[in-house]
Structures are given as structure tokens and as C-alpha cells.
Design goal:
By secondary structure, the protein is an alpha+beta fold. Helix content is about 45%, strand content about 15%. It has a single domain, classed as Pemi-like Protein 1, Chain: D (Ribbon), CATH 2.10.260. The chain has a two-stranded antiparallel ribbon.
């Protein structure tokens, strides 16, 4: 795990070093998620968070199945029954 020391400027900003941006796949304009956890700041990308969520959910559906299509079908069926 790479560890880098940075300084906070007068506006409260820090610069994420290029090596870490590269390792995370961060590009200008990308959204980041910051979380405070036990007095430590955790930083990740929205892309990484989505990928983790997809990985967690993937064990609950069969490959080739569209969850959005299934949800729409369920909603249409529920509306039809009303």
C-alpha cells in the first residue's frame, strides 16, 4: 500500500499525487466519495463504489438477467392488478 504525505493549503485543499490518481483511475472531473471512519478519511471513486455494489449484487442474480427489466415487469404486473 502506497503512503504519501501531503499538506492542506489555506483553503483546506490537498493534492492527490499523480501516482495515487493513476492507481485509482482518477481523471479530471471524476466524482470522489469521502468518508470519515474512526477519525480516518477514506477516499474512493464513484466508479469504484458502483463496481463494489455490482459485485455484491451479482451473487443474487443469474448472468444475462436484467434486473431493471425484471423490476419494470414486476411494477407493470402490480399496476395491472390494481
Amino acid at each position: 500500500m502506497e503512503e504519501v504525505r501531503v499538506r492542506v493549503n489555506e483553503n483546506g485543499r490537498i493534492v492527490i499525487p499523480a501516482s495515487i490518481r493513476s492507481a485509482l483511475g482518477v481523471h479530471p472531473g471524476d466524482e470522489m466519495i469521502l468518508r470519515l471512519n474512526d477519525n480516518e478519511l477514506l477516499i474512493t471513486t464513484v466508479k469504484n463504489r458502483i463496481a463494489k455494489a455490482q459485485q455484491l449484487v451479482s451473487r443474487y442474480w443469474k448472468p444475462g438477467t436484467s434486473l431493471s427489466k425484471e423490476l419494470l415487469a414486476e411494477r407493470r404486473e402490480a399496476a395491472r392488478r390494481e
